[in-house]
Design brief:
The chain is α+β, with helices and mostly antiparallel strands and about 375 residues long. It contains 13 helices and twelve strands.
Length: about 375
């Protein structure tokens, strides 16, 4: 019986070569497109899910209100804000900051101009990026230390076995005009090596430096300034803590620390009115923060995700009820219900594939 089915199918294909080719090629393209859609959706939903123990971790965002202007919705926050929340709000049990900086580094006689990331000493205990060498709780015990990715370790030393090796740079945490400090050479010891951060993360970086180091480019004045938004901030809440309650408890801190400077600059708003704080769950950052400016990586979008899912579903619905119909019935169908509809459908599908391929290449 199966042999008879195959014989009939082959005869129909030979009898209707053009429409058989259109349907088979269209089916292959359609299924390929659906697979790409599934991979895209899976990829977008995987962001930061691979990092353990982030269920109580949140990213800070702020909206800054300036009289006469539109509010500025920003992913970057004042350097002092996360620490003030940890110190004064009981529900906040930990915090870290994430500040990309540029730095020139010497390895032997080789000079590298690099993007490094200054973080708090507890960074690897709070955000558990996988270390292949080093203890997360001790890698930044010495302020003059570094953690490298495996790629960076191979780049600088030709091997991932880089623990104890030295990279030199100049001091950065200096006051303006302090030439002695600015000309000082700082030796930074590699105390940890981590796996490369994969693309499906809101974080990126290959060289991590504790922001307590004298090599940190963020000055002491900038670290105390509540009006300089210069990096990302993350806070860890106690289990069961309500993020809105935490935000409400931040209001008096803002009133106390920011209002005076605002009044001196002619802004009569209280600190809690000039700054509106928002908390986003760590694993939700990629898909829910497109309205916040100055993110260090382009965010995704639920709208895009739903749109791609609908495209995949429409392609499936197009093929499930009509599998092979037009090729076998083309001789009896009218142009509007037979070969014409098949050709138009596949031209539309081809256009859809081209649009999806362009989008995936430019935004993936």
């Amino acid at each position: 019986m199966i042999r008879n089915y195959l014989t009939v199918a082959l005869r129909n294909i030979v009898r209707n070569k053009l429409f058989s080719f259109i349907n088979i090629a269209g089916l292959a393209i359609g299924l390929t497109c659906v697979i790409f859609v599934i991979l895209f959706v899976r990829d977008e939903l995987s962001y930061d899910k691979w990092i353990p123990d982030t269920q109580n971790l949140y990213r800070l965002e702020v909206s800054v209100y300036i009289p006469g202007r539109e509010p500025l919705a920003m992913a970057v926050v004042p350097f002092a804000m996360p620490a003030a929340m940890r110190d004064e709000i009981p529900e906040v049990t930990g915090m870290t900051r994430f500040n990309p900086e540029r730095m020139s580094m010497m390895v032997g006689d080789k000079l590298f101009a690099e993007h490094i990331t200054a973080v708090d000493p507890d960074f690897f205990r709070l955000i558990k990026l996988p270390l292949v060498q080093g203890d997360p709780g001790r890698v930044f015990q010495d302020p003059q230390s570094l953690v490298l990715s495996e790629s960076a370790a191979r780049k600088y030393f030709g091997t991932t076995d880089a623990i104890g090796k030295i990279i030199t740079t100049t001091a950065g945490n200096c006051e303006a005009g302090d030439t002695a400090c600015l000309s000082q050479t700082v030796s930074l010891k590699v105390t940890g090596v981590m796996r490369d951060i994969p693309y499906n993360s809101q974080l990126e970086g290959d060289v991590f430096l504790p922001n307590t180091s004298i090599a940190d480019r963020n000055s002491k004045a900038a670290k105390l300034n509540w009006h300089t938004e210069n990096g990302l901030g993350y806070v860890k809440l106690a289990p069961g803590a309500d993020p809105q309650s935490v935000i409400a408890k931040l209001a008096p801190i803002l009133d106390r620390t920011v209002s005076g400077d605002l009044s001196a600059s002619g802004n009569r708003l209280m600190g809690s009115k000039a700054y509106t704080v928002h908390l986003t769950r760590f694993v939700d950052v990629h898909l829910t923060t497109e309205r916040w400016r100055l993110s260090f990586k382009p965010p995704g979008s639920w709208t895009t995700l739903y749109g791609m899912g609908v495209i995949g579903l429409l392609i499936l619905l197009r093929w499930v009820p009509s599998r092979g119909k037009h090729a076998s019935d083309s001789a009896d169908d009218s142009w509007s219900e037979g070969p014409g509809l098949s050709i138009l459908a596949h031209v539309g599908m081809l256009v859809g594939v081209c649009v999806f391929t362009w989008f995936y290449a430019t935004h993936g």
